[in-house]
């Protein structure tokens, strides 16, 4: 490789690079499809008719099938990976305060943002830090469709 050539590897942010209170907007959004919903729902053995039965769901309060909320949650976390955790996370420690205040439907587009709410160095794992972040998912109209607090163990910037 010549001196003019550079290699840039996509990665998330190390512990020190994460700013408390910073809003990280993850793009692109993800438009939810009927296929996504049916595959995820059946793959996870969730037989809930609200996800699978269009005729029955039409008689329910929302008048149509709902996206599986676990798919919504998984996609919210997934949308954050390239920007925040790709290659910089050690482990996910837990999730709390998960809510779905508005349903997501087939054809809706999910946009997620993350705010780091707390971080501290690990007292038992040198070279690592504990980060708490809140993921918020919104549909194309800006309506909040999901929210979750997530705690993860991150690598500190490697020393050279």
Automatic annotation (TrEMBL):
InterPro entries: HotDog_dom_sf, MaoC-like_dom, MCH/BMMD. It comes from the Bacteria. It holds the Pfam family MaoC_dehydratas. Transmembrane segments: none annotated. Residues 22-136 form the MaoC-like domain. Belongs to the enoyl-CoA hydratase/isomerase family. This is Dehydratase.
